[in-house]
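Example record used in the benchmark description.
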Amino acid sequence: MFLAGKRVGLVVALSLGLAGAAMAADSLAWKGGRVTADVQTWDLLTLLENIAGATGWDIYVEPKAKHQASTKFKERPPGEALRMLLGELSYILVPPTNGPGKLYVFRNSKGDATQAVRRKRSKRLENELIVAMKRGAKLDEKELGAKITGKIDSVNAYRLQFKDAQAAEEARKQLEENEAVDSVDANYAIARPQDAEQLSLSAIPSLDLNLKPNKAGEGPIIGLIDTAIQMPGDARDGFYLPPISVAGEAAVPPDVPTHGTSMGDALLRGLALGGDGSGSSNVRILPVDVYGNLPYTTSFNLVDGTVKALEGGADVINWSLGSDGENALLYRIIRAAAAEGKLFVGAAGNEPVTTPTYPAAYPEVIAVTAIERDGKVASYANRGPFIDAGASGVAFVYFDGKNFVSIGTSAATALTSGRAAAQLSAGSSPAAVTSKITGK
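Model output (structure tokens):
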């Protein structure tokens, strides 16, 4: 089955809960099966990079195709949105089966769409910095000409906003010469991972986890750093601790599971697969929303959410997300927590490339890619020397009486985190768990 369009209005019946990130005057938000855009300056490649980052689709374009996007609309269905965004160009959208959906953009023939478009996972916020001060030191934002837009008290870190990129760069140089400063980092916008997609299949692998929460609940805690979740109204509810948000209150869709909800189910599936067969578990999940209602999170929110999860007692941190940008503050937090026996599991990314994805690529983090049944890396999944483990990239979700699926290294990461927590619960040491998962 595929969907195609050329200068005609289409209503595409896809249950895609998607979000996109665009940080300048141009903007694109792809969420809950509806698309909102204000695009005036993007050329074709920039437009497609943002669509790819928003949806997780594999996109291929005719190398000679040209287009200057200029459109503004609100909450249109995906097919109609694509028509308005792509103008005179033709497209074919192939919905996902055992991997991401595929979008082909061309002038005359699908066969001409041969150039792969790289997904934009993150974008540097040129007028922002993340500054961590040494213990007891104070930051003088007025001297720097900055505005404090966020603060993490326990690590004495600040999110600073400047009038422009030049002012931020001047402040960076000044801060790097200040002995009271522990680290100075760029702040990146990290694209929101796509929500699960509805399955039209009448039968899918059993969604019965055959797992109940142990009422004592005094076992390991998994910190789920992700989008907001919809708290389940069934037996799974007992596995969840009260959610935390570092990005404001989020409005979750009533009929589509969010990415966070899907990853929570994947964690439980991993927990069931890695359990002792008793049918119960004392593992709990601590959901931490770092996205809120925005189509992106930031490096600062990722640090903040991770800190909050660790402060909430998390023994395993699950990052089913990733960025191109490193962060010295986050890495310092990871190293300190890993030394205390905390486990970190991160998604390798779905591009597929061999370049590192962070935080997965940090040495103390178990970097997980998606593998097929034959044991080979999935065609859409990242690979490379920073990868430590692989797991199935398919997670089925039963929500609101319907079946959904989430495909990618996000799902593989959550499955791995669930198994890791099950092994910790059974008495294995963090080092033994890491060794068993990575084979190292």
